[in-house]
């Protein structure tokens, strides 16, 4: 219980002391991650629609490429997915 209280207080202090630039970069990372996830999903949906044996490598590579072009957040999403 004490650990959770300490973590919450520490996160509040860090959030309050964060400058706008840091919050802006964090927002860009999250937007890139969401966009990268959408790119990966779109490639998966296209792969299912094509229904062609052996084409999965192309669609995975296309999804990774599109996601990675979105910046660090998209690259992170491509790596995780």
Automatic annotation (TrEMBL):
Statement: the UniProt record of this protein carries the keyword Disulfide bond: no
Membrane-spanning parts: none
Pfam entry (one): SAA
PROSITE patterns in the record: SAA
Zinc-finger among keywords: no
Domain of life of the organism encoding this protein: Eukaryota
Annotated signal peptide: 1-18
GO biological-process terms attached to the record: acute-phase response
Single GO cellular component term: high-density lipoprotein particle
InterPro entries: Serum_amyloid_A, Synovial_Prolif_Regulator
Keywords on record: Acute phase, HDL, Signal
Family listed: Belongs to the SAA family.
Biological role: Major acute phase reactant. Apolipoprotein of the HDL complex.
Name of the featured protein: Serum amyloid A protein
Gene name linked to the record: Saa
């Amino acid at each position: 219980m004490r650990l959770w209280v300490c973590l919450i207080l520490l996160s509040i202090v860090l959030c309050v002391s964060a400058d706008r630039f840091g919050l802006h970069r964090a927002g860009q990372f999250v937007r890139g991650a969401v966009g990268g996830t959408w790119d990966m999903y779109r490639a998966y949906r296209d792969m299912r629609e094509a229904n062609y044996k052996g084409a999965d490598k192309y669609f995975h590579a296309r999804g990774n490429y599109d996601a990675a072009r979105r910046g660090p957040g998209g690259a992170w999403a491509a790596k995780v997915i």
